[in-house]
Design brief:
alpha/beta
């Protein structure tokens, strides 16, 4: 038997659970399907840029949003989606690895992204404890500290400039002879 919903949200990070909260509050029968809870929020021990909280852990924040979404009736199923098809009547059919089949009038894809790991010793252990994948999110956490930026290109040039405004010293590690293709930018940093 295929379960029927108004909306199925794939992903239980902050975006997916926020979508679930809003959909459920509108009295839409809402299902969230995700392999796990929290997504990238679980990579950080401290969040200082979420409105309403001076400081909160990623786990604490996602648990609060999960609780709020469930309060309004959103259901959460932990599984992996392995297929989405649109039926002739316009309804979407979502299948999962465990064999579940669900139908909905709308599907929201909120599965986020996974940061590219460098594979260096200690990286996994230090995620959220000094290793960060979002400069714009976390630069203020490194105020007056020495930091290392790994990567190259214009995007990382912008990251280096931002970090320079917070950190006491920025070391920029990049592959090749120069951090960006633009010679003028390379000289400015």
């Amino acid at each position: 038997m295929t379960a029927r919903y108004d909306v199925i949200i794939i992903g239980a990070g902050i975006a997916g659970l926020t979508a679930a909260l809003y959909a459920a509050r509108q009295r839409l029968k809402t299902l969230v399907i995700s392999a796990d809870l929290g997504g990238q929020l679980l990579l950080t021990n401290e969040i200082q840029n979420y409105p309403g909280f001076i400081s909160i852990s990623g786990l604490e924040l996602i648990k609060k949003v999960e609780e709020q979404a469930k309060l309004y009736g959103a259901q959460i199923h932990f599984d992996e989606v392995n297929g989405i098809t649109q039926l002739e009547n316009g309804i979407f059919k979502v299948t999962t690895v465990s064999g579940g089949e669900y139908e909905a009038e709308a599907v929201v894809l909120a599965f986020g992204k996974t940061p590219r790991e460098m594979g260096v010793p200690g990286e996994k252990k230090l995620k959220g404890r000094g290793v960060s994948y979002c400069v714009i999110c976390d630069a203020p956490l490194y105020r007056n500290r020495r930091v290392v930026l790994v990567g190259w290109g214009y995007h990382n040039y912008e990251n280096a400039i931002l970090l320079r405004d917070y950190a006491s010293k920025v070391y920029w590690v990049f592959p090749g002879e120069k951090p960006v293709d633009d010679e003028n930018l390379s000289k400015r940093f």
